[in-house]
Amino acid sequence: MVKEPISQFYYSHRLKLHFWDWGGAAGGDGGSKPVLVLVHGARDHARSWDRVAEAFAADFRVIAPDLRGHGDSDWATGAMYGTAEYILDLAALVDILGGGPCHLVGHSMGAAAALQYAGIYPGRVARLVAIEGFSPPPHLAAPKPLRERLRNWIEGVRECERRTPHRYPGLGSACERMMKENPYLAPETARHLTLHGSNWNPDGTLTWKFDSYMRAPSPYSFRMDDAMEIWRGIRCPVLLFRGLDSWSEDPAKAGRIQAIADYRLIEVPTAGHWVHHDQPEVVIDAMRRFFGE
Questions:
Q1: How many angstroms separate the most distant Cα atoms in the chain?
Q2: Alpha helices, DSSP H only, in 65-145?
């Protein structure tokens, strides 16, 4: 039986950031195992990886951070939520874990950060798994002039300033919202994600833990040409997952993924953007083979 992870904190960019640690507690055997870092996506949290973490905790010291503005980590003053900031925080975490080389897994925004980290620090990543993190979401896919990007960012931040976080009357309604976002989600998974991803208010309602200001991405956050330039620096083997019912583009068809020297792509049917939630056994089995090579 896999034990409950240990809650720990570290500091990056003057923020107190939280992570869960399977196997690294005092007196444990985490120090003798290779490190596996699981990086979640936008508006998510570290405990969304629990099923994956439990599958690999016997062979790895599994670490799952709450990204800045998410889960139990600090919200960034000034709402600094760009890809560069997430890579910075990941670099700080890997440093305190010994500097690598580690095994790195990311989903969506977390996968985008993991891919770029591996290109910037190729010697610190032994193997990399990217789930749906190799193409930007549709609203960021089409290149736009910087003037337009800056205007959209300003208006997005102003909208966040006027926004009141939505309150759900109870756990059931919050779970329903979770399942509406992802129709493939099993009810028990939705409940687990909701319990770890929300806070109770004094009136008995729930609100999501993530900072609403991360809804306004930096106008300098993700440029595909820049990402491909960094991907060319990746030296480790890379395993990519794409849900066939996701909004993401086929990276092989777009020709972008050829920037990664050593990659393999698994396209998963009956799965959307959250492939590791929709088809967890497919993802876990493929990861186990990939790590064992």
A1: 55
A2: 83-96, 109-120, 138-141
Three-state DSSP at 40 gives coil
Q: What is the fold, at CATH topology level, of the domain defined by 6-140+221-292?
A: Rossmann fold (3.40.50)
CB-CB contact of 83 with 39 (8 Å): no
pLDDT, tens only, 88-138? 999 999 999 999 899 999 999 999 999 999 999 999 999 999 999 887 776
Give the predicted TM-score (pTM) of the model. Answer: 0.94
Contact by Cβ (8 Å): 45, 66: yes
Structural element, H or E, at residue 187: helix 187-197
DSSP sequence for 151-174: HHHHHHHHHHHHPPPP-BSSHHHH
Tokens representing 185? Answer: 């989600």
Record the tokens describing residue 5, joined without a space. 């992870």
Q: Which amino acid is at 84?
A: A
Tokens of 94: 């890997």
Report whether the peptide linkage leading into residue 101 is cis, meaning its omega lies within 30 degrees of zero.
yes
Look up residue 217 and give its DSSP letter.
-
Phi, psi of 202 (to 5 degrees): -55, -25
